[in-house]
Amino acid sequence: MPIPEKSTPVRRVSVKDKIYNILEGWIIDGTLLPGEKISDLEIAKHFNVSRTPVREAFHQLEMQKLIESYPGKATIVSAIQTDNLEQYYLPLSVLQGLAAKLACENMTRDSFKELTSLNNKFKAALTSNDLVMTGKYDEEFHKCIIHLSGNPYIIDFCEILNLHVKRLCFLSFKNNIAAEDSVTQHEDIIRAFEKKDAELVSTLVEKNIMTAMNRIKSMLEQTR
Prior knowledge:
Blueprint: H1 15-29, H2 40-47, H3 51-63, E1 67-70, E2 74-77, H4 86-103, H5 109-127, H6 131-148, H7 152-174, H8 180-194, H9 198-223
Antiparallel strand pairs: 1-2
C-alpha cells in the first residue's frame, strides 16, 4: 500500500486520560469514598502536573456522574445509587445479551480459550478473596463478549453503564457476598457459544447480569 511521505504521529494516552483512568479506578475501588471532597490542586500536586489536565479529567468524571461539582464550594465523589438498581442493570443486561447474540458469529477457537482462561482467573481470584482481581476478570470476561459483537455503539453504551455497575460489584465483593454462581454461569455461557446457540447464549448472559443485581439487592437489604 502507498504510505504518505509525511508520517502521522501515533496517538499516545494524554495526561488527562491517565489521570482520568487513575481517578476512575480510585472511585470504583473505594480509595475515594462517596461524598469525599477532591481537590484539583491536590491532585495536580500529587501527579506533578498543571491543574489543566486535572480539570479536564474532572469534567469527564462529572459527565460520567462519578463526581459532582459545586462551583465555589467543592467537588465531591458521587454517592453510589442503590435505590433503583434496575436503571443500570436492565439496559446493561439487554445490551450484553444482544452483544452475545452477535458475538456467536464471530467466535473463534482463540475466543473460547480467552473466555475460559478469564473465567478460571475469575474463579481463582474469588477463591483467594482478591477483590480487585475478582472484579477485573469478571469485567474482562464480559468485555471480551461485548467486543466480539463488533458493534461500536453497544461497546460504548455498555462502557458507560459499566462504570456504575463496577462500583456496585466491587461493593458486593468487598462485603463478601458470594459470587460462586457466576463461575458456573460463565461456564454455561461458554458452552452455549460452543454450540453456536445465539438465543441461549443471549438468555444466559442476561441471566448472569441480573443475578449480579439480585445479589447486590440482597446485600443492601441485609445492611439496612
